Amino acid sequence: MTYRLYQLLARLPLGILYSLASIMAFVIERLAGYRRGVINSNLLQAFPEKSPAERKRLRHDFYSNLADTTLEVIKGSELPLDTFRERLTIVNPELLTDLSDNFQQSVIVLTLHMGNWEWMLHRAAAEYPVSSAFVYKTLHSPDANRFSLETRCRFGAHAIEMRDAARDVIKNRRTPRLIFMVADQSPGFRERVHWTTFLNQNTAFFSGGAALARATGFPLAFTYSRRTARGRYQIELAEIARDPKSVDEDVLIERYARLTENAIKASPADWLWSNRRWKLQQANAIKTDG
């Protein structure tokens, strides 16, 4: 039933979906209060210098953006590739070409839950002459998981379940690809992590992306998207390390953390504030660094 609903929504024009998104934003903010406590706490800790009115406005903008992104992701299951090329502008697309030595090798690209992180995968397919792969966690809902994977893979991207990431990347290391990892979510307490100060809080980051880059020698890059208008985004890329084997793992993760923090501060309403980002406490983690 849920899968069929996604399909029906995807057939609606974007204009109608944005009208539905406005209604959805009102419902989740004013009626349901979706994760309001989590959002309020995250915003207060991240921006203690802002007034209550400023944080309230930021929360309101976040709800609007969340509703838009949700329906855009669904619509992304049937939009043509040219639409993603038109709606997402890459500021410096040449960076990945340079880091990969004109796609003679793979590049690991770390990103975050900001703007429309799903559409960025399709924009890469429209821009670059090599295939993409993405690391994902299986969703709890089978229908949502099926729909998500079908949407992400529709232009040839390869799905890698998180627990299989190291094996897949090493096995296919001779095939040049862009390997995307969303690396800003809270790790589990059994995972190796790097601890640092992030948005005014002691925060754990996954070690996986940096460890893979060091193991393979693949260059490590960063990317994020921010809204410029409704349904339109600007993507920017940054180099983390051209030769990751020559850089300590902790330094690589720290560079990612700082790039992520700067991106959020520059466009805060675009980040996923409803995520329970700080649920892992340092006393419960396997490894403590930094």
Task: Explain what this protein looks like in three dimensions.
This protein has 290 residues and is an alpha/beta fold. The protein has a domain at 86-284. The chain is built from 11 helices and 9 strands. It has helices at 2-10, 14-31, 36-46, 52-75, 81-87, 94-99, 117-127, 142-152, 165-171, 208-216, 249-266; strands at residues 88-90, 107-111, 132-136, 158-161, 178-182, 193-198, 201-206, 220-229, 232-241. A 7-stranded mixed sheet has the order 1-9-8-2-5-3-4, with helices on both faces. A two-stranded antiparallel sheet has the order 6-7. β6 and β7 (201-206) form a beta hairpin. α2 (14-31) packs across α4, α5 packs across α7 (117-127) and α10 packs across α11. The longest helix is centred in the N-terminal third of the chain and has 24 residues, at 52-75. The protein is globular and about 50 Å long. The chain starts with a helix and ends in a 24-residue tail after the last helix. The mean pLDDT is 94.
